[in-house]
Specification:
- It comes from Pterocles burchelli.
- One of its GO terms (molecular function) is cytoskeletal anchor activity.
- It holds the Pfam family Insc_C.
- One of its GO terms (cellular component) is apical cortex.
- The protein is mostly helical.
- Among the domains are: about 120 residues, Four Helix Bundle (Hemerythrin (Met), subunit A); about 70 residues, no CATH class; about 130 residues, no CATH class.
- The protein has 27 helices and no strands.
- The chain is flat, with a radius of gyration of 29 Å.
Amino acid sequence: LASLSLPSSMHLIQVDSVQRWMDDLKLMTDCECMCILQSKPISIEKDEQNELILSSQYSTCDNLQLLLKRAWIISTELTRIALKVEKNRWQRVHSMTVRVNCHVRSMINEYNTLSRNFSEEMHQFEELLVDKCSEFTAFTERCIQTEDEQILKSMKSCINEMLTTVAQYFGQLIELVLTHEAQNLLRQIELSDSMYITELAISSLFSLTQEGAHLCRIIAKEGGVVALFKICRQDCFRCLYPQTLRTLASICCVEEGMHQLEKVDGILCLADILTDNTHSEATHAEAAAVIAQITSPHLTFTQHLSSFLENMEEIVTALVKLCQEASSGEVFLLASAALANITFFDTMACEILLQLNAMKILLAACSDKRIVDTPYSRDQVVTILANMSVLDQCASEIIQGNGVQLLMEMLFERSSSGNSAEVAACERVQQKSAVTLARLSRDPEVADAAVKLSCIPRLIKLCRSPTERNNSDSVLVACLAALRRLAVMSPDGLEDSDFQQLVKPRLVDSFLLCTNMEESFV
């Protein structure tokens, strides 16, 4: 069913499967039996007090979570119906269609009960969706009453068309509802003078951003970045700055958010926050998180951040200070991640870092296990070192700060948990430490220190043993490059077999040899 397109906004945080089943059970039990009851409108005159009590029990965030859970179930059911249609499981198709019909009606009634001020367009889509679901249910009922294969075959294309239409109406309705909720929250942020209401609205907005990039685009389009930076420019809301900045970092993962940030001089505001010593460490850390987000090398739409270059020296200086004074691993991680991204963003940043003695500060932080306590933090540090190592003056800084010893230790980085994200971080640490060694070993003093610390045997082990590098090709290439650079500076450090296999051939031939070793082990 190529044309079936379900809403991209359906994204729920993964949780334990049993817990998910328990949460969904109340939404899925006997929905066919309850459909008629749930579809009856609640009388405003007679049940006004009950309705008020019901509304007061749920915040906007609760409403949205209920809506998104119900929408996720509907989205999943529509996908399953498409699969059952392909397999001609007509009885299952019909029962699932009845269930979707009930869920759609329940979702609309629940939302209408808990929310207010709908647009006419939203009401129209609700009616279109309900009518199409009813038509779809009636049509699938005819399928189970027919045994003629030819008739069923001809009805199949109609079912696919109806299914596609239901999915489209459903997606458009969800889009309208989410836009409506985002508008309500932003209106509260912009118009309310109450600290409590503003805080609740920002918290609900942050929850929305966690539902995926599609929600972030909606919020950005509706003026979310503008409203949040307005908060960050008012001293009376200082206690809300961390929460506001955290929400901004989430919205700025999409291009629309970045464009809005540029339009409201967001970079200048972030620079002012970072350089203002009267702000709390939490505020500085969240501002660093926004900087890390907007300078991420994984984003393809950072070229328009022209104002960043104008404020870069101030921002880098403030981030180095934050790294030096960080009271926790989390604060250091956010500040160092921002610095690491900036070194990719512009090469001038590396020269600024060198002038600020950042190398010494970062190397000192790595010796404090309370501050640099995860592979993720070491990944940021070694990224900065790797990018700074292109500068000739960097070698003496590394020697003075005992940096070669740190790089050697990083070649042994292994995950303690086996978590896939942590394993990937460990691979990056190994790769970048080898890259940094390769670049710095053009200086004889660094190369001599690396040889004395037995870097060559460790690099050989990483090349020859796939398990040591977690079967990573990028680590292998980096280690081969570092080994060849050290072999030039200290040829006596290698046995003849290692030289003949890992150094003398072309890099690609040594790479293929080592990857073939991997296959033979398997």
